[in-house]
Amino acid sequence: MEASVRKQVDRFCRQYLQLEQTLDYPEPQYIRLPEVQDSIYQRLFADDSLPGGPPPLRYQVRVLKELISRIEVSIEDWDAQGVSDGLMSSLSVLFSTPAPNEDDAAQQKCRVVYHLASLPGHEAHINLFENRSLIAAGGTTGLRTWEAALHLGQLLCRDPSIVSGKRVLELGTGTGYLAILCVKYLGSTHVIASDGSDDVINNLPENLFLNQLEGSDAIRPMDLKWGYALVGTEEERWNGGRPLDVVLGADITYDPSIIPDLVSTLLELFGIYPHVEVIIAATQRNLETFQVFLAKCRDEALKVEDVSFEIPSRDQQEGPFYNDQVAIRICRVSKL
Fold first, then answer.
1. SS3 of 246, please?
2. How far is residue 63 CA from its own chain's centroid?
């Protein structure tokens, strides 16, 4: 398969595994080729092609129906060309499989694969179990990976020195995407994946297992609720007095009501670790919300500096894929 064709197939497969709603299907002159159809079938739809489990049934059906429709439209000579038997057979099996009702499907976790195109090596990726509904029943947004985490992860992939060889604390870790990235690919010495949600903390071991990090001494989940004292009555020093070099946070400023507690925790961390580097990424869906964060930082003598790192346009993204139409702001926070 020519490199230009393989690139289109790779892009489509990566988007499918990331459960993207909008996929870039190979162009008509390529999608009708038997080798292209066979490659897609073997990678996405053949039995046991996805050891971690397939995407949700409705997603599989929607994508495969669209794929076959595009193949049929692209065919110019039905005597010489056709639709892959494997793809047609897969669609038949999917149609005969009972689908869960929509309410049950919305609460189910599904496997999502994020390809890391910025890193050397074709196989760099992160596997996560996520709940793709916007907010889970418990009210937490931490059971799926949001754009700011993907964008901050891209910055770290481009400049691994930010976390390489360092001890990292992630605030609001959610699915653990950034924490896993730092340990698995970027050479962090140790990462604390912290969150204040019990649902999130209980979900993390499963995602660590998916990424061969179960039992690893390099990463540790931690229940950390902002606004509460880091050092309790049973310990003299937080985290056993171990050093900390970097604090990361992605999409943790989305709710104005939690910002005072977040800033309080940052102040306490600066008190314990005066030279710690704090990097926060925020999706700018509501500019007023981030202004609340900036104002609170000013009131508490915290300096916030922008880090210049543009979102790649959608057509230039090779994985992970995320919205290029919503601004994502990355900032360094320091104590004045």
1. strand
2. 21
pTM greater than the 0.70 cutoff: yes
Alpha-carbon distance values, 316 to 9, 214, 320 (Å): 15, 34, 11
CA distance 220 to 194: 8
59 and 194 within one domain: no
Closest to 147 (Cα-Cα) out of 333, 326, 332: 326
C-alpha torsion angle, residues 137, 255, 225, 265 (rounded to 10): 170
93-113 per-residue burial string, b: 16 or more CB within 10 A, e: under 16: ebeeeeeeeeeebeeebbbbb
> For 284-323, what is each residue's pLDDT tens digit?
887 888 999 999 999 999 999 999 999 999 999 999 999 9
Last residue of a domain, one of 99, 134, 153: 99
pLDDT tens-digit profile of 110-139?
999 999 999 987 689 999 999 866 544 444
Residue span of the structural domain in which 72 resides: 3-99
Contact assessment for residue 167 and residue 198, using Cβ atoms and an 8 Å cutoff:
no
68 within 8 A of 88, measured Cβ to Cβ: yes
Q: Which two tokens stand for residue 94?
A: 């999917």
Name the percent of the chain in helix, strand, coil, to the closest 5: 40, 15, 45
Domain assignment present for 104? no
Contact 9, 36 (CB under 8 A): yes
Boundary (domain end) residue, out of 79, 99, 119: 99
In the three-class reduction of DSSP (H, G, I as helix; E, B as strand; rest coil), residue 119 is classed as coil
Identify the DSSP state of 41: I
